[in-house]
Amino acid sequence: MIYCLPLVHILVLSTLLAFNASNVFATDPPRRSPNILLLVADDLGYSDLGCFGGEILTPHLDAMANRGLRATNFYVAPSCSPTRSMLLSGTDSHIAGIGNMAEWTGPTQHGKPGYEGFLNSRVTTVASKLKQAGYHTYMAGKWHLGDKPDQWPAARGFERDLSLLQGAGSHWSDMLGLLPTQPQVIYTRNGQLVTELPEDYYSSKNLTDFIIESIDANALDGKPFFAYLAYQAPHGPFAIPKDWKDRCKGRYDLGYDAIRQERLERQKKLGISSPHAVSFPRLPNIPAWESLTSEQQRLASRKMEIYAAMIEYMDDQIGRLIDHLKQTNQFDNTLFVFISDNGAAGEDMAELVSKLAPAAKDWFDRTFDNRPENWGNPGSAIEYGPAWAQVSSVPFRLFKGVVAEGGIRAPLIVTGPGVAHKGSIHDAVLHTMDIMPTFLESAGVQRNSDADTNLTATVQGKSLWPLLSGSTSATRTDADWLGWELFGNRAIRQGDWKLLYLLPAAGGTGQWQLFNLRDDPAEMRDLSAIYPKQHEALLKLWEQYVTANNVIISDAGPFAQHTP
Asked: Looking at the domain assignment, is residue 522 inside a domain?
């Protein structure tokens, strides 16, 4: 079985969701239009943050969680661009144009509506809607929703942007891509191509700088802002400034088996996981930590140290931005939302490169210096692999790229004006499509209006304000359901029940399996034989999902060939 997926930025999976969504707004949003700050981490795992059980030091995000609400049942797509399409449009990715990642669109999908490989004209963005309502709109970070000028952030509602158009690339000024077919990545700044970055560029710092500069540029005109800060961290290739490089040295010497268990115990104490939760077992292709040589342990620990330092640096930059908002008297009227775009990434470049075509492998070896002493520096390209990705995914099954819980369950933190929670942890089922209608309601903007002359798709997400305001403990009923699909992997969730189909190459059986996520969040006990009627009911919902969202099962992708 194959448990880790192809090269980072072309690793893909498309996820989707569907359900009956109302256009009626909830009650009790903030009365004054707030500033909105949307923070997105790239490939951050569910259990990485301190406030979700991790040993990684994230004091600013932890403080944000203590001021507001943490959601433990927040869903995204299993890969980056599908999540981002739904995040900005409030609409299923198969409708929004990312039914499959552009890098993996198959012959049966080419040219079909919803499979354009970029954010299409059937949807409008939350940035466009808020801009129409009088907001300043800023973006900094990873875009991954189209690389033609009419697909850039500046064409989709952002008045200021500093954007990486591709799905992955160097965190440094060298603008290196990860494949010989695209040796250089492309950036835009305020709708113009960027030919070079500052010599001292490092993604997390400079992206934060740009958002601060953008906020300050219009601070005196009295208009609120919407800022979308889409960090590259901690997406590979792992990179960290020299003065942070040894920040986590020695922290992971106990190894991934022990650290994984420690995280689960902290989750139980925090209330993130139930007292009876167990983690999905170590994958069969991952050796026990004790079986590794001391040198193998040292190198494995070092990769995790660099990964953790990237997250701690990102948190430090978030703290710097928060401090600036406080100093400029904008903090109290800013709604903060933090998410990760998918589950932890299980790739390991060192292993993947060995499987490349000879010419591609030669290019990679000539381009990157991956000696251990250079890890994390400019010119290196490493990741931490499936063993540590399982740590980041505690307690769930698998990770980025598949529709198991480890690929699609992500941390969500919300705090700010109108949020009636102070450190609350909620298990309401929420989804990334819910973010757009939440922001529109905050600003008093109708989600679908006559002004959207090109809009043909209805926003599917549900506003989070009933939950955030404290007027209810859930935004969905047991009758509501959500769906996902990408590369032939599929899932439906309704209430506590989930029907899951994973291909063998993705770590599954190639058969539909039924799980009760309240009792079995790690998806280890198939209940299909015990509850055949529940299995059949969810299978019918899957058919509804396919019809409602024009799902076309791919005949190409990172997994083995399969029969749709």
From this structure: no
Query: Is there a domain that residue 507 lies in?
Result: no
Question: Active-site residue 144, yes or no?
Answer: yes
pLDDT one digit per residue (tens) for the chain, 564 residues: 334 444 333 333 333 233 333 333 334 555 579 999 999 999 999 999 999 999 999 999 999 999 999 999 999 999 999 999 999 999 999 999 999 999 888 899 999 999 999 999 999 999 999 999 999 999 999 999 999 999 999 999 999 999 999 999 999 999 999 988 889 999 999 999 999 999 999 999 999 999 999 999 999 999 999 999 999 999 999 999 999 999 999 999 999 999 999 999 999 999 999 999 999 999 999 999 999 999 999 999 999 999 999 999 999 999 999 999 999 999 999 999 999 999 999 988 877 877 778 988 999 999 999 999 999 999 999 999 999 999 999 999 999 999 999 999 999 999 999 999 999 999 999 999 999 999 999 999 976 654 455 556 889 999 999 999 999 999 999 999 999 999 999 999 999 999 999 999 999 999 999 999 999 999 999 999 999 999 999 999 999 999 999 999 987 777 744 433
Any catalytic annotation for residue 80? yes
DSSP 377-443: STT-----HHHHHHHHTTTSSS-TTSSSHHHHEEEEEEESTT---SSEEE---EEGGGHHHHHHHHH
Instruction: Decide: pTM greater than 0.90.
Output: yes
Q: Which CATH number characterizes residue 366's domain?
A: 3.40.720.10
Residue 385 lies in a domain: yes
Which member of 144, 171, 235, 426 is catalytic? 144
Residue 514 lies in a domain: no
Alpha-carbon distance 480 to 8, whole Å? 33
Query: Which residue blocks in 45-168 are alpha helix, DSSP H?
Result: 59-67, 80-89, 93-96, 126-132
Q: Which of 4, 51, 80, 248 is catalytic?
A: 80
* Domains identified in the chain, total number: 1
Range of the domain at 97: 30-473
Token look-up 């259990």 returns 47
